[in-house]
Specification:
Length: 145
């Protein structure tokens, strides 16, 4: 009889030690709320073939560069390989990249990471991005000498 009571007491103690869920971490575009670099929603990135780079990739967002213009692209749901992407391809139905087109994501420079192949991630939203806005804000916050 003593063993079940000890087991029950140990289970209660362990259950009381579990951590309570904290404040949820915002994901996707919500993670950039209030960020001065986040611009207005964009309907498309025209001439998708001119996209020449990407940066700041996370599991739901990536910044695509088209010449001197930058766009923050959010994918629908999580795209597991996006955060570690070494190569991103564009799958657009027209010459412009729009919502519901796809990013083809690979964490390998050779294009194949597993036997399944690269991930296809549908685009949920596109926003303009101004990477210089943060630097401008930092310059204003610095005291004048």
């Amino acid at each position: 009889m003593l063993k079940p009571a000890a087991f029950l007491a140990a289970a209660i103690v362990l259950a009381s030690c579990t951590s309570m869920p904290g404040k949820p971490v915002p994901r996707g575009i919500a993670a950039y709320e209030g960020d001065p670099r986040l611009g207005e929603p964009a309907n498309s990135i025209c001439f998708a073939s001119t996209i020449d780079g990407f940066s700041a990739n996370k599991d739901r967002t990536v910044i695509l560069r088209d010449g001197r213009k930058e766009y923050l692209v959010e994918v629908l749901g999580a795209c597991p390989e996006l955060e570690f992407a070494q190569a991103i391809g564009i799958d657009a139905r027209t010459s412009c990249l729009t919502r519901s087109d796809a990013l083809i994501v690979s964490s390998s420079l050779m294009g194949q990471t597993t036997t399944v192949g690269p991930n296809r991630c549908l685009i949920k939203d596109i926003y303009t991005w101004n990477s210089k806005a943060e630097a401008k804000e930092d310059a204003e916050a610095a005291p004048a000498e």
